[in-house]
Design goal:
InterPro entries: DctP_fam, TRAP_DctP_sf. This protein is an alpha/beta fold. It is 47% helix and 16% strand. The strands form 3 sheets. Strands 2-1-3-10-4 form a 5-stranded mixed sheet. A 4-stranded mixed sheet has the order 8-5-9-11.
């Protein structure tokens, strides 16, 4: 009996020296996401989970729960804060009512390209990290969505054509746009969008080519105006408590995989932007440039919203916009 016990202890010691994780050393995290399994953000999350597994030698296993299967989009942040899930992916502008800083990338026509959006993120990041830190959260990485355009069931010459229309509002910014253009805001999350369009609950919205394709908007909408109004970001967050419970090598492995996911995600988003527009065209949707009048009207909306946001965001908001504008390349 003593001999067998000695052998089993030797086996455990050998496994440890070979780097084989014991069951006790392994940590399992659920990561809540709101988007379909085929969406590029979710595909990036799945790759991130694989990279974390490899970088931590199997010590940290992340299971991605896509398509709002664990929590709805607007519930994910609170779930991570409250310890119901260690990690989650959120759309930052969705939480602007909680703190204006979350809405920096939801202001129309402030940052309208990937390069501009990245500069805005660089200006926003220190303030964002401090804010999340105070809420018991840690930012792992962000990825921008493709630029936002206007989907409509009819042709649009100006903002006047949107008055009274049933408009999808998925964030405070998109609800504010509805108010300023005289549309009727209807709150619909991405997972329910396809059905809402098919049943006429929603007639128009601003969102990306990605969401338009994923939600099969081409089945009920024929026009997409490529306004390139803003590029909202998804952020992958983790509870500080869960992060702090990891040992240093696991933390380092997680952060390395996060940095790789951020670089990969931004690159894929830019590549996918053109692919989505081509795919929507092939499905019968008309991808059109907005008329000069529509652009001028929407820029006016953007100016009002920027002034409003700066008032609410105070010195932090002013610092973000000043740093962003200062970093603009010389013309």
């Amino acid at each position: 009996m003593m001999k067998r016990r000695t052998l089993s202890l030797l086996a455990i010691g050998l496994a440890g020296s070979l780097g084989v994780p014991s069951a006790m050393a392994q940590t399992k995290w659920d990561l809540a996401s709101a988007y379909p399994i085929t969406n590029f953000h979710t595909e990036n999350l799945q790759q991130f989970a694989k990279d974390v597994d490899a970088a931590t030698s199997g010590k940290l296993k992340i299971t991605v729960h896509a398509n709002a299967s664990l929590f709805k989009a607007n519930e994910i942040k609170r779930a991570v804060q409250g310890g119901q899930a260690p990690a989650g992916e959120i759309l930052l502008p969705n939480f602007e009512n909680e703190n204006p800083i979350f809405g920096a990338d939801g202001i129309p026509f402030l940052a309208t390209s990937y390069a501009d959006s990245k500069r805005l993120y660089d200006a926003q990041k220190p303030v964002l990290e401090k804010l999340l830190n105070a809420q018991g959260l840690r930012l792992l990485y962000t990825v921008a969505w493709p630029p936002q355009g206007i989907y409509a069931k009819k042709e649009l010459a100006s903002v006047a054509d949107l008055r009274g229309i049933k408009w999808r509002a998925y964030s405070p910014a998109t609800a504010k746009i509805a108010e300023l253009i005289g549309a009727q805001p209807v709150t619909i999350q991405a997972a329910e969008l396809s059905q809402a369009m098919a049943t006429g609950v929603v007639e128009s919205m601003m969102t990306s080519g990605s969401t338009g394709y994923d939600s099969k908007l081409y089945e009920s909408i024929k026009y997409f105006y490529d306004t390139q109004a803003w590029l909202p970001k998804n952020a992958v967050i983790v509870s500080k408590k869960a992060f702090d419970a990891l040992d240093k090598p696991a933390q380092d492995g997680l952060l390395k995989a996060a940095a790789e996911a951020e670089a990969r995600g931004w690159k894929v988003s830019a590549e996918k932007n053109d692919w989505y527009k081509k795919a929507l065209t092939e499905k019968g949707m008309k991808i059109l440039p907005p008329s000069p009048k529509l652009v001028a009207d929407m820029r006016q909306v953007g100016d009002i919203m920027l002034a409003d946001w700066l008032k609410k965001a105070g010195p932090d908001g002013e610092a973000i916009v000043a740093a962003y504008r200062k970093s603009a390349p010389a013309k």
